[in-house]
Amino acid sequence: MIAAGRTWRSYAQGLPAPCTRTDSGFFAVRHMPSAYYLSERSRCRAREKPVGRPTTGTLHSAVAAGTLPAFSMVTPDLCHDMHGHSGCTGDRIEAGDRYLAQYLPQVLAGPDFASGRLVVIITFDEGSRTSNHIPTVVLSRTTKGVASKQAFTHCSTLRTVEEPAAPAAAGLRAHRHLDALGLPSVTPLTP
């Protein structure tokens, strides 16, 4: 993505400051992608941002202005990620639902989504104890009632995100993942 001249940003609930590399309160550093990529750590000051509140803060401002980067990852804290935490109160699933209900409507009403520049992927990191099927919902201006019978993994979700931003020199074949989701096939970006 960087090689293609595209930007990314992680918005994390409870992030004390960009480049934080230890857990703090209900913030878990394991939710920050740049913590795992040495090449991205130098970009953390510009790319890691606290979510803020539904009506103020970095995510709200970017959504309202239509200035979301090519890739954004929004991560709830330990009280809203549906896992629950010993210090959290209330039902863990309801807490996650409330979190999505606070942010998702404004993202879907924002100019990036309205223009068709934004695809929203809501995915979970694990399934049930019996099947481990991972719920994933893809929202875009072109997906309408699509249900894919194709099996997807976190790796295929990552590929779906990476393919449109990959340099043309990568020699990518057809975008099967995008087609299965009802998303338009796109031409890879040139650097």
Largest sheet: 3 strands, parallel
Report low-confidence residues grouped into runs of 5 or more: 166-175, 184-191
Approximate strand percentage: 5-15%
Alpha-carbon distance between the two ends = 9 Å
DSSP E strands, number: 5
Compact overview of the structure:
By secondary structure, the chain is α/β, with parallel strands linked by helices.
Explained architecture:
- The chain is an alpha/beta fold and 191 residues long.
- It has two domains: 1-118, no CATH class; 119-191, no CATH class.
- It contains seven helices and five strands; from the N terminus they run βααβαβααββαα.
- The protein has helices at 38-41, 44-47, 58-65, 92-109, 111-114, 154-165, 176-180; strands at 8-12, 48-50, 71-75, 120-123, 136-139.
- The strands form two sheets. Strands 2-1-3 form a three-stranded parallel β-sheet. A two-stranded antiparallel ribbon has the order 4-5.
- The longest helix is centred in the middle third of the chain and has 18 residues, at 92-109.
- The protein is globular.
- The model is unreliable at 166-175 and 184-191 (pLDDT under 50).
